[in-house]
Amino acid sequence: MQTIIRYELVIKVLRSALMLDTPDEQINEFICFFGKHIGCDRIYIFEDNKKEHVTDNTYEWCRQGIESEIDYLQGVDMDIIDWWYKAFDKKENVIIRDVETIKNEHVYTYNTLKIQNVKRLVICPIRYKNEISGFFGVDKPPIDDHLGLTTFLDMIATLVISFLKIRNSQNKFKREAKLSGYSALGQIYTSMHYINVKTNRFHIVKMDRKF
């Protein structure tokens, strides 16, 4: 019954998100809806920049009274959470029921989470073309059903990557259109310059004839 309710919830939020115009608005609506439904403190999406070996918090929803962290979580060194990626590679999610339990084994991760006042969290990978491209996380999820929640979040992460792909396609189209526009302007400028040169020569010829 709970699974049916969750699937119905997904359909409901998809309809709500798709009413909006841009992928950014759709993704924000998506995570906002689920954040309120799950009853967590914060939901966030990180996207990896493998060239720079960092990951960036690109989307975030926070429950009322919870401080936003997105501005402080740009260019995060992936080595800080390298053990998360190792878990992802093994098709596993990361479940931390009590952040104090990782204090000794994963010091850098612990310190990063502690600064954010995170007490427990669930992290699911975002895969694109069979590669990890980031992750989808929930801070302070309900305690009673972490495993059920990760299964649910896996499904949500699949939908998130679909929105991200649409966003990337639109951004690529806009960049190409912009470059095409610059190219067209360049051609117009070149043509006008050519016409001006030809016009000047024409006047010179006429003046020569007068003299």
What secondary-structure arrangement, pairings included, does this model have?
Blueprint (H helix, E strand, L loop, with lengths): L1 H17 L4 H16 L3 E8 L4 E9 L13 E2 L4 H8 L4 E3 L10 H9 L5 E8 L2 E9 L6 H65 L1
Antiparallel strand pairs: 1-2, 1-6, 2-3, 4-5, 5-6
Helix pairs in contact: 1-2, 2-5
Structure description:
This protein is of the alpha+beta class. The protein is built from 5 helices and 6 strands, in the order ααβββαβαββα. It has helices at residues 2-18, 23-38, 82-89, 107-115, 146-210, and strands at 42-49, 54-62, 76-77, 94-96, 121-128, 131-139. It has a 6-stranded antiparallel β-sheet, with helices on both faces. The longest helix is centred in the last third of the chain and has 65 residues, at 146-210. It starts with a helix and ends with a helix.
Q: What is the N-to-C order of secondary-structure elements (H for helix, E for strand)?
A: HHEEEHEHEEH
Number of strands: 6
Mean pLDDT: 79
Give the overall shape, derived from the CA principal axes.
globular
Helical stretch tally: 5
SS content category: alpha+beta
Largest sheet: number of strands, sense, barrel closure: 6 strands, antiparallel
Relative helix content: 40-55%
| Proportion of beta-strand residues | 15-25%
Instruction: Give the terminus-to-terminus CA distance.
Output: 99 Å
Parts with pLDDT < 50 across at least 5 consecutive residues = 201-211
- Strand line-up of the largest beta sheet: 3-2-1-6-5-4
Radius of gyration: 26 Å
Please supply descriptive tags for the structure shown above.
six-stranded antiparallel sheet; 6 strands; 211 residues; 5 helices; globular; alpha+beta
